[in-house]
Write a structure and sequence with these properties.
Organism: Helianthus annuus (Common sunflower)
CATH topology: Rossmann fold
CATH architecture: 3-Layer(aba) Sandwich
Family: Belongs to the short-chain dehydrogenases/reductases (SDR) family.
Order of helices and strands: EHEHEHEHEHEHHHE
CATH superfamily: NAD(P)-binding Rossmann-like Domain
Distance between the termini: 43 Å
Number of helices: 8
Oligomer: single chain
Enzyme class: oxidoreductase
Number of strands: 7
EC number: 1.1.1.-
CATH class: Alpha Beta
Structural class: alpha/beta
Keywords: Oxidoreductase
Number of domains: 1
Length: 264
């Protein structure tokens, strides 16, 4: 039996919520009592997710391309109109971008990655925070970063740049929004076999997981989307009521150990 729901009465908006980490978070947040608005551009996957939920009245879909600020503003407005407030923003939408060398980088692709992974996050924080401030909601804003936000060589150049920028954005938003009782944090996972990562590396889920297990620091555990969702649940809940400005690594220690040194 599950313990007392940790998000009872709360409303969460999850970008990139139709698949991968976002889908896992949507299911887990629902399980813990939240109303959830999925923001995505993957219509079929979003509708399939909603159809699979037993309490369809507590979850809905709002199509939104996070590169377009007007669409982001409309998604936040839809959330407040439908459920009365917004208590949690999980700004999770993102892309890996092309796997190219810096010598062959297409700057249009670079700009698109930054538009989704940085501009999109900035837009969602801006409009969700406005709604929280107006309602005097002591909300929680969570952004999906990456191990690539801490080290080089863990992802494509544009992706790595965008995730470093996201950490800076989180810190400045934390500084400003703390005065309103709003906390802002990031989660930085190691490699997870999501549709996004599988497509980027052109590998099956099992192959991605095998590669991550081989290169990861913590052995005996396969990182899944649900593990990242559980970290988001902690940051969304009142259990983290005085946690803000943090980049929570869900990486098995990957970013804090030297991979060139071994005592063996």
């Amino acid at each position: 039996m599950m313990n007392k729901p940790r998000l009872e009465g709360k409303v969460a908006l999850i970008t990139g919520g139709a698949s991968g980490i976002g889908e896992a978070a949507a299911r887990l947040f629902l399980e813990h009592g939240a109303c959830v608005v999925i923001v995505d551009i993957q219509d079929d996957l979003a509708h399939q997710l909603i159809a699979s939920c037993t309490d369809s009245g507590k979850i809905c879909y709002c199509r939104c391309d996070v590169r377009d600020e007007k669409q982001v503003e409309a998604a936040v407005s839809h959330t407040v109109t439908k459920y009365g407030s917004i208590d949690i923003l999980f700004s999770n939408a993102g892309i890996m971008g092309p796997m190219t060398t810096i010598l062959d980088m297409n700057l249009d692709d670079f700009d698109n990655t930054m538009a989704i992974n940085v501009r999109g996050v900035a837009a969602t924080i801006k409009h969700a925070a406005r709604a929280m401030v107006a309602a005097k909601t002591h909300g929680s804003i969570i952004c999906t970063a990456s191990v690539a936000a801490s080290i080089g060589g863990a992802g494509p150049h544009a992706y790595t740049t965008s995730k470093h920028a996201m950490i800076g954005l989180m810190k400045t938003a934390c500084n400003e929004l703390g005065a309103h009782g709003i906390r802002v944090n990031c989660i930085s996972p190691f490699g997870v076999a999501t549709p996004l990562s599988c497509a980027a590396y052109n590998l099956e889920a099992g192959e991605v997981e095998a590669n991550c297990c081989a290169t990861g620091n913590l052995k005996g555990v396969v990182l899944k989307a649900k593990h990242v969702a559980e970290a988001a649940l902690f940051l969304a809940s009142d259990e983290s009521v005085y946690v803000s400005g943090q980049n929570l690594g869900v990486d098995g220690g990957f970013t804090v150990v030297s991979h060139s040194y071994s005592v063996n």
